[in-house]
Structures are given as structure tokens and as C-alpha cells.
Inverse folding.
């Protein structure tokens, strides 16, 4: 059954209501900027992927592993969001691709206007793939569309398998769930089957890949997913010309 697509910031769990609050105008303004970003990425055939998770789930380590695997096949860059420090961007640059740190100064999520400002400080022209590594948080980032083609959420084996039902909007608005740190599965009380079941009860369309950036399990499958999405975007652009 095909599920109707909604704007990412407006998708809600079944049976939920959205209360009027002071963030409504902020989200409308964000979606306006997000559309401009989406149009820019479409015009230059760049796939934009928003990587989200709670803190410590392995986003930066995944970006390093992805850079090492694909840097000779794709032109890539990463925009990294954090409250403070440039440490993650430095780690990604050391893996061989360009990266820019967006320091939010305490803001718990990235917003579309932050991404637009970042474009003034990093060359995104000619990129095949641009990643946004969001601030580690399963709550606030779910509400903010950044103009991405795909939202990918990591859930680590070390943080428990109950997160899709506890933080449903993040999984509802994601196209792919990555179950990270699979090398630790023998040592932690985490069920891959349970987390996939819960995620698909929230979002029947969500895909899932189990991987480890440490031992390489699932990295080929992840990279093949990215290559296919890049190929699809370029093919769709040629059709629309």
C-alpha cells in the first residue's frame, strides 16, 4: 500500500494532533528556505541526505567510513552540526572529503537557514552527494526540513530498541533507518527484529540496514543504497530536461 507523502516537518503519527504553538511561524519560514535549498540541489543534480540520530550513535564514524569507501566514485562533502567545537568536521576531512562545521551555539538542531548560510563558506557546486550530519537529538531535528532528498536515522545497538515508538516523528519522517554498532549486538540487550517492527508500525515505508562502521558489516549495502539514489536523481533530472 502506497502511503501518501507529506512535508517532512508536518508528518504526524496516526491519531496525533498538532497543537498551535509559537513555533508554527518558525516552521513555515524554515520550510520556505528548505524549498530554496531543494531547488538548488535539484538544479545541480546533487543528492542531499540528512543524517540524524541521538548523540553518540555513530554518525561521524559512519561519515568517515562512507568517505573512505566512496571518495573515488563520488564527489562528496559533509556539513556537520554541533553545539560546539570543530572536532567532527576535522575527523571527516581527515577521511578524505571536504567538511564544514556548523556551530549552533546551543541550538539543539539544524535549521534550513543555517544550511543556506553554510553554502557561503563551502563549495557545493558539482557535488554528487552532500551530507548534513545533524545535531545529535531525536526530538527537535525531526521538525525541521533541511531541503533533503532523504532523511536517514541511525539507532545504535547501545541505546535500546524502543526508540521508534518513543520518538515516532523522527522515524515517521525518515526514509531509511540504520541500525549502527552491530558489532556490539552480542553484548547488549537489543533486538534488531523488534526495532524494525516498531519502526515499520510507525512508518510502513521505512527501509532498514544493519551495519558497523568499525568492522565494515553492512557498509557495502549502505554505500550501494547511496550510489543508487545518486543514480536515480541524475536519471530523473535527465528525463525532466
Amino acid at each position: 500500500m502506497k502511503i501518501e507523502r507529506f512535508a517532512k516537518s508536518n508528518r504526524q503519527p496516526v491519531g496525533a494532533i498538532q497543537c498551535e504553538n509559537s513555533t508554527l511561524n518558525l516552521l513555515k519560514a524554515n520550510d520556505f528556505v528548505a524549498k530554496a535549498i531543494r531547488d538548488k540541489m535539484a538544479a545541480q543534480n546533487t543528492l542531499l541526505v540528512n543524517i540524524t540520530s541521538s548523540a553518540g550513535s555513530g554518525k561521524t564514524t559512519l561519515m568517515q567510513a562512507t568517505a573512505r569507501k566512496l571518495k573515488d566514485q563520488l564527489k562528496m562533502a559533509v556539513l556537520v552540526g554541533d553545539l560546539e567545537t570543530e572536532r567532527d568536521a576535522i575527523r571527516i576531512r581527515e577521511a578524505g572529503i571536504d567538511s564544514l562545521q556548523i556551530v549552533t551555539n546551543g541550538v539543539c538542531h539544524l535549521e534550513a537557514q543555517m544550511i543556506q548560510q553554510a553554502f557561503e563558506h563551502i563549495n557545493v557546486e558539482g557535488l554528487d552527494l552532500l551530507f548534513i550530519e545533524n545535531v545529535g537529538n531525536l526530538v527537535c531535528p525531526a521538525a525541521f526540513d533541511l531541503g533533503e532528498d532523504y532523511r536517514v536515522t541511525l539507532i545504535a545497538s547501545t541505546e535500546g530498541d524502543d526508540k521508534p515508538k518513543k520518538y515516532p516523528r523522527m522515524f515517521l519522517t525518515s526514509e531509511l533507518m540504520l541500525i549502527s554498532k552491530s558489532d556490539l549486538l552480542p553484548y547488549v540487550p537489543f533486538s534488531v527484529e523488534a526495532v524494525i517492527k516498531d519502526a515499520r508500525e510507525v512508518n510502513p515505508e521505512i527501509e532498514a540496514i544493519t551495519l558497523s562502521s568499525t568492522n565494515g558489516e553492512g557498509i557495502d549495502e549502505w554505500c550501494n543504497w547511496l550510489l543508487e539514489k545518486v543514480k536515480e536523481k541524475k536519471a530523473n533530472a535527465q528525463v525532466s530536461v
